[in-house]
Amino acid sequence: MALWMEAGSEPKTEGEKADLAAIAAIKESAALEFKEKGNQYVKMGKKHYSDAIDCYTRALNQKALNNSDHSTILANRAHVKLLLGNYKHALIDAEAAIALSPTNIKAHYRATKAAFALDRLTEASFFCQAGLKQDPHNGELKLIMKQIDSRQSERRKREIEVAKSVAAAKNLVSAITNRGLRLGKAMHQELSGKRKPMLDKDNVLHWPVVFLYAEVMSSDLIEDFCETDMLSVHLDMMFSESCPPLEWDQERAYTREAVELYYETGSGVPLSKKEVLQYLLEGTTDPQTESLFVDEDAKEDSNQGIDEVRGSVKYVKASEKQTLLDVLSHPQLVIPGIPVFYVVSKKSSFYKEFKTRNWSAP
Prior knowledge:
Ubiquitin-like (UB roll)
């Protein structure tokens, strides 16, 4: 009997040929039946999608249909997988359907939809254009082609924006590094609104600077403190006679002639170039873009400078005649994201506590 013939052997008798023809007909009939049953399950709704996939798979497993019918069933199964959100496997089925029948427009459309859902825009565009060559007036393909073009345009714009942000951040890191400054983990971001330093066209750094009133831990933010400005310039503005006294300053101790500025040294660990870049680009790029800006030299310096800046924590008094850059260049200072100064008053009862080191920042 033909049923017991070894695989690959050819039928020799008319009886064997008849048996094989009958088996092929049975398989073809079964495959078509499974296909129709699968179509019915699709129409019955989402609860029956898994049954539809099972029927289409059974139809394919019969291996009794021509390439065109086989392609149709694969495209149908891709359709159900799209409905279920299984885009990766939908794309596999749709590609296989196209390989069997390049004129299968539904297969092209479903491959396009799956690739688009996976954000594989180059593939989506390829499948869509191939389908439009077969059917230039296909409305569904035209519509999704517009969506692909729109998303590609948005991506190009985003890539341009990212490239600009990356270039600006790299220039900023170079400026910080060339000045011998060390940037550490960002602190007090709730006070600074996550503002970052910026480099102007004349290669001058501008910093957001936090003034912390150590006595009560309230704060002021100077959004644009030029590195060449002396500290006295901003103190003159903040504590001028025309400015109202601080609300919490019951002793009226915080006057222009009484305030002093201190900064913290011996704490913090300097970030690597890579980490500084990540900090500066925070909020401007997607995590996936990190590979665009991580240079080899940025990978190699992750521990440079740590030992030389570690030490006991000290509060160093800043001279009002110093520029911001003078202060930030202190060899034991690690800038906590942005510069932070502690403001105290010689007239305040808190002053002695601060000076005798009986106080530490919370």
